[in-house]
Structure formats: C-alpha cells, structure tokens
Write a structure and sequence with these properties.
Layout (H helix, E strand, L loop, with lengths): L4 E6 L3 H12 L4 E7 L2 H10 L4 E4 L2 E2 L2 E2 L2 H8 L5 E6 L4 H9 L4 E4 L4 H12 L28 H11 L4 H8 L3 H15 L4 H16 L7
Parallel strand pairs: 1-2, 1-3, 3-6, 6-7
Antiparallel strand pairs: 4-5
C-alpha cells in the first residue's frame, strides 16, 4: 500500500463531494488527487494525474457512472475503483464486481466505513471476493429513513458544510444571527448531535440527498 493513497472522487452532487473531501482530508495517509462530476472529466484526470483509487458514483445525473469501469481500463488505468452510491440492487452489484469494481459502499453507511474500505481495497489482500462492501444491506437502500429538513434548515446546513460562521451564514441569507443559532439548534435536536462536526458527519451518512434540493422557499 502506498504511503499516501491518491484518491479521485467522481460524483455529480457537489455538496457530497465537498463533504467527502473534508472527510478524506482528515486522514494523514490520504491525498485527494481530484474531484469531478462526469465520466469524461474522470478519464481526463486519471490520464494526466497519478491516482490509486477512484470513488465512483454510478448515478451521475443523466449519465451512468458504471461506464467509467470499462472506459478507464481501456485507457490504461491500473488503479482500484470503489463504487460509492446511494443504492444498488444485488444484480447490479454483482455486475459491477464482475466488471472490475473493487467493492461497493453505500452513502448511507457511517463515514468511517468508507475510510476503512479505501484502506482495505488498497491493502495487498484487498476485499474478499464474496464481500461487495456491504452486500447484506444493498437491496432497497436507495431511500434512507430520517427527518426531513426544511428549506431554511438546508440553507443553514449548506453554510455549515461550507465552513461559514453563524455571522457569515446570516449575512449570506439576509437573516439574523440569532435565527441562525436557533435553526442550528433545531438541526442538532432533529439529528441527535451536539456539534457542527457531528452534524456534518451525520448529514453525510444519512441526509445528503436532501441537501441537493434547491427549493429555497422559506
């Protein structure tokens, strides 16, 4: 396993990419080699930059991310590809593994599992052939139960993801700082956390699809 694992993230959800980049940045043996939202961009990056492992979402808007598996191999990419997706059937999981995917991690899983899987995939032994990286829970996992966020809560949470202070979030949305604090407290109570760091981690684990909803009527 290399001293620093160089990682490429391919996902069409910008907030998810930002959150995962923050998560990976906290690991001394990880290095973010790049991030993008399409198969074509991913192919361009692996063609010019050293990449050890690609974290690939198979649902890239109107594009099927699974195409990256074959196209990258044809282009000579020798690194590992770990699928990180919101949901996949057992049939599709088997197809991805047969096409050379090194493992599958669901976005609903705890963030630490993704970190563990990356290291496992990059270890000499890799992930055992019978282990898809979470296969017992693959079926029917596209939707995650949990509290819905209001448009205002999504606004505030996006600000937290961006690393903004309460004052900066208030200025950005033309609201008072006490209101920002009040909404943050609502988010803490709704998600069962006590700090911003925990809030970000829980949002990555369970609620990130909601944050892509751009309807901001409040």
């Amino acid at each position: 396993m290399p001293e620093r694992i160089r990682i490429l993230l391919i996902d069409d959800h910008s907030l998810f990419r930002e959150a995962i980049a923050r998560l990976l940045g906290g690991e001394a043996d990880f290095e973010l080699a790049g991030e993008c939202s399409t198969v074509e961009e991913g192919l361009a990056i692996v063609a010019k930059c050293p990449v050890d492992i690609v974290l690939l979402d198979i649902n890239l808007g109107l594009q099927q991310g699974g195409a990256f598996l074959g196209l990258s191999r044809t282009a000579g990419f020798q690194g590992k590809i770990l699928v990180v997706t919101a949901g996949v059937s057992r049939v599709e999981a088997k197809r991805l593994l047969d096409r050379g995917c090194a493992g599958i991690v669901l976005k609903q899983e705890r963030p630490q599992l993704l970190i563990e899987r990356i290291r496992q995939v990059m270890s000499p032994d890799g992930i055992p052939p019978h282990d898809s990286g979470g296969e017992p829970d693959l079926e029917g996992m596209a939707e995650t139960a949990g509290p819905r966020f209001t448009p205002r809560e999504r606004q505030i949470l996006r600000g937290v993801f961006a690393g903004l202070s309460n004052k900066e979030i208030a200025f950005q949305h033309g609201i008072s700082e006490p209101l920002v604090k009040s909404v943050l407290q609502q988010l803490f109570e709704k998600t069962g956390v006590r700090s911003r760091v925990q809030l970000v981690r829980v949002a990555i684990e369970k609620y990130w699809p909601e944050l892509e909803d751009e309807s901001e009527a409040v």
